[in-house]
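Students often ask why we bother encoding 3D structure as a string. The short answer is that it lets us treat folding as translation between two languages. Here is a chain of 241 residues written in the first language.
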Amino acid sequence: MTPDQALVKHLARQKKLRNGQDPDEKDNTDDQEINCCVIWARPPTAVLDTIQKIQNDLLQLVGNDLYLIPREDLHLSVIELSHRHTVPQLRNVSDQIGSSRIQEILDQASTLSTKPGLVAPTVTFDKMGIALNYLPSDAGSYTYHHLRSDMHAMALESGVKIDMCYTAPSAHITIGRFIDNRFFKTAEARGKFVQLVKEFNEAQRKDQDGWVVGENHGLEVQLGYLKFGRESSKADLVGKV
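And here it is in the second language, the structure alphabet:
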């Protein structure tokens, strides 16, 4: 596992702020090309409860090597309008697209008679973190991929270049990122971690907790340093349910 150095730095900065200390001026993320403007969907309560159970089991095994995304920050990135820029640059992109068009994009899901579903939850991991991945349900003729495609097309109609990170179909909720590697130094520990992930997925196959995008929570635009999640209250705009 590879500790996420950006997260380590971010957590140190947040600690300074909580303690009333001024972070270094060079740590001002607004002026760095690491910010994004993204449309997020929020998982329903049942999915959040499942993720929290997984997080608790991971915490008991791995401990402080893993930073767990807080419940209120958990999200699914539907599409990115712009990524890896300064906040002023992102504000410029947002202004060019226009708030009325962005609101229309956010409201797209609410206009559908049958909203797209996500199914087959699977816990996966790479060297940087761990996530809960979904597949688009094919129960209806309009899928999650159709929604992403339509929203992207609506954004392009503004004439603004839309630069995306997840250009390939993607539907995952990041639930934790690695910030140290002490636990994983032995083969026995790594084996326990892999076994726990297998147990998660065996349980998911039995429960099959799918969810419908935009059913209980409107889609939202978030703009800023979003690499590690952020609560709904900081959204720029929120779509209709």
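Translate back mentally: DSSP finds six helices and nine strands in the chain. Keep this in mind for the problem set.
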